[in-house]
Specification:
The complex is a heterodimer of chains A (about 220) and B (about 400). Chain A is an alpha/beta fold. In chain A, about 35% of the residues lie in helices and about 25% in strands. Classes of the chains: A alpha/beta (about 220), B alpha+beta (about 400). Chains A and B meet through helix 2 and helix 3 of A and helix 1, helix 11, helix 12 and helix 14 of B.
Chain lengths: ~220, ~400
């Protein structure tokens, strides 16, 4: 079953000069797949990721997520869809520094509003446990180490049990030990929980161990 | 608590210093706005009160008429070159009828006739020119609150006593008169009367104190050698002095005599009032708007600081209006805190200033708790806060998360 499908996606940058950054990209991603996108910087892999994540809406072609055409939907519809179906992990953790780790993890679920605050809190504890951070739950996010912060960010991406997790250099700021931890978590998520992971990475080791590699060059899949 | 409000309150409470500065700005603006506007109301009230001590809300009198052609010839208009004032008596004909007619108007509260006579006060060889106002003492007191200006004697003794006179303190001083002393007055018609000083009044105007006196209306009629239907002015008070200008034309149509509201009669004073109002309004709004800029600046700063937070929130599914709500909640919370504390501050300022003694016929500083100004201030304060918060909030909502993540 395909969770994500692109048809002829192209994108142009207009500033400073007209430049085609993506050229007719078409591919599909199946459920539970662990996909790595690699390529030199400027190859268009991050641009493609932001289009797949629905945050960038200025492109030609068609994007389908979970059997629905999302191209042309309004920003509010897309936001609601992201909230429910997509989790994000970036190179930088983007935690809200004033909030505790637990609260940071709870925010997307509170936004979704599907469960009561009590249920969300216990779910957030479960995710923290999964990532081995349950003893850090009530600390402010700014007080954690870099590796811990990244794991909290992953826990936050998981809180709404999304279909997909989109990662932009998830291990870019981590040492090898933390990279290994993060990789193992991702592997577990795809194999046991059936969640799809699409990760842009520069880390060849990381890519090699994933299920599938898409290499990009000059806006095309090689 | 809603997650938007939760985030807003966390931002507010983790940045206590900034929040406090913004609240202080609104507090100051708010309290000064309310305070100055309450002061304006107080000033206007005392000014009107002091005007109403010598002026009725509406004065009905016979105006001079210019001569007009008697006949209109057909096809052309007759014109009198260099017309003159018609030499007619300035008395109001059948004043009792006119008074009862005016009394029927539902807006009217007091109607009292008055006769003014130019006189000399004589003691021995000394003569001082002055003006005697012939009134019905009880009605005149109701209208002008004369008793509040009496410094010696008893104005009630004037009632029905045609030999009594109430003189200004300046007259009393110059002629070294005390209560129950005799005073001789001469009218412009050469009539002499001996009167007894019943009361001495002192107003805030020394020119009036040095020339004016009150006598019974019949005495004034005698001084002018006129009968008891001779009345030059009819003074009218209405329920709401602000409506005098509306009632006056009604009375003109009703009686056929010229009716003049107090604002028309004191045009230059009214101009000064208006100027005062413009200045105070301008200053108080400026202060409030400066407070608005304070909120705007601080929220703009917060938006810039929290741009990463905004980007991730939008990525995680917060919509544009959620972001607007987060920052608008902050602005309005600051606004509410500022407005409430500003109102308390204004009440404290008013309480303090109320106790300051100014002197003269003003007495204590003319300021009071003006509920309408407190409410008006709260509304204006919240409106300014709303806009000061909405602009940065909209900016936050327009943040493009991709451009932040790609940096």
């Amino acid at each position: 079953m395909n969770i994500l499908e692109t048809k002829n996606i192209s994108k142009y940058f207009h500033d400073p000069v007209e430049f085609q950054v993506l050229k007719n990209i078409s591919f599909t991603v199946g459920k539970g797949e662990f996909l790595s996108m690699i390529g030199k910087s400027g190859s268009g892999k991050s641009t493609l990721l932001y289009i797949l994540s629905t945050m960038d809406t200025e492109y030609q072609g068609q994007l389908m997520i979970d059997g629905q055409i999302v191209t042309g939907q309004s920003n509010d519809q897309l936001a609601a869809m992201r909230n429910q179906k997509i989790g994000f992990v970036f190179q930088f953790h983007y935690l809200l520094p004033e909030f505790s780790c637990l609260k940071n993890i709870m925010i997307p679920a509170l936004k979704l509003g599907k469960y009561s605050t009590k249920e969300i809190e216990s779910k957030a504890y479960d995710k923290l446990k999964l990532l081995g951070l349950e003893d850090q739950a009530l600390k402010p996010a700014s007080k954690l180490s870099g590796g811990q912060q990244q794991r909290v960010a992953i826990a936050r991406a998981l809180i709404n049990d999304p279909l997909m997790i989109m990662c932009d250099e998830p291990t870019g700021n981590l040492d090898s030990k933390n990279t290994a931890i993060v990789f193992d978590i991702f592997k577990e998520l795809t194999s046991q929980l059936g969640q799809t992971i699409i990760a842009v990475t520069h880390d060849d080791e990381f890519a090699k161990n994933s299920d599938r590699i898409i290499e990009m060059k000059d806006g095309e899949i090689v | 608590m809603n997650i938007n409000a939760d985030i807003a309150s966390t931002y507010l409470f983790t940045n206590k210093k900034l929040t406090l500065v913004a609240v202080m700005g609104v507090l100051l603006g708010m309290s000064i706005y309310i305070f100055m506007n309450s002061m304006l109301v107080g000033f206007d009230r005392t000014s009107s009160e002091s005007i109403f001590k010598s002026t009725a809300h509406i004065r009905v009198y016979k105006d001079d008429i210019l001569s007009k052609p008697l006949h209109q010839t057909e096809g052309s208009t007759s014109v009198i070159i260099n017309p003159k004032v018609v030499p007619a008596s300035n008395t109001i004909i059948n004043p009792n009828e006119v008074v009862s007619l005016i009394k029927k108007n539902p807006d009217v509260t007091i109607v009292t006739p008055q006769v003014s006579a130019t006189i000399f006060y004589n003691v021995g060889k000394t003569q001082i020119a002055g003006m005697a106002i012939g009134v019905i003492p009880s009605e005149a007191d109701m209208m002008f609150n004369i008793k509040s200006t009496i410094v010696e004697g008893d104005f009630d003794k004037m009632q029905g006593n045609t030999n009594a006179i109430a003189i200004g303190s300046g007259v009393a001083e110059k002629l070294s008169l005390k209560i129950n002393d005799n005073i001789n007055i001469t009218s412009s018609k050469g009539v002499n009367r001996n009167l007894k000083v019943a009361a001495i009044f002192k107003t805030n105007n020394s020119v009036i104190d040095k020339s004016k006196s009150y006598i019974n209306i019949t005495t004034a009629q005698q001084l002018l050698q006129e009968n008891n239907t001779y009345v030059t002015d009819i003074n009218v008070n209405v329920r709401d002095p602000e409506k005098a200008a509306k009632v006056a034309p009604v009375l003109t149509n009703l009686t056929g005599y010229k009716s003049e509201g107090w604002k028309e009669a004191n045009e230059s004073l009214m101009a000064a009032f208006r100027m005062r109002k413009i200045v105070i309004t301008f200053v108080s709004y400026t202060i409030l708007i400066v407070a608005g800029f304070g909120i705007y600046n601080i929220l703009n700063m917060t938006v810039s600081q929290k741009i990463n937070d905004i980007a991730i929130l939008k990525a995680m599914g917060f919509k544009g209006h959620d972001v607007i709500r987060i920052f608008l909640t902050q602005a309005l919370s600051i606004g509410v805190m500022g407005v409430v504390s500003g109102m308390i501050m204004a009440a404290i300022l008013v309480t303090l200033l109320k106790r300051v003694y100014i002197g003269g016929d003003i007495g204590f500083f003319p300021i009071d708790y003006e509920l309408s100004k407190f409410i008006q201030g709260a509304i204006v304060g919240m409106v300014i806060t709303f806009f000061a918060g909405y602009l940065p909030a909209r900016k936050a909502a327009q943040v493009d998360p991709v451009s932040i993540f790609r940096k």
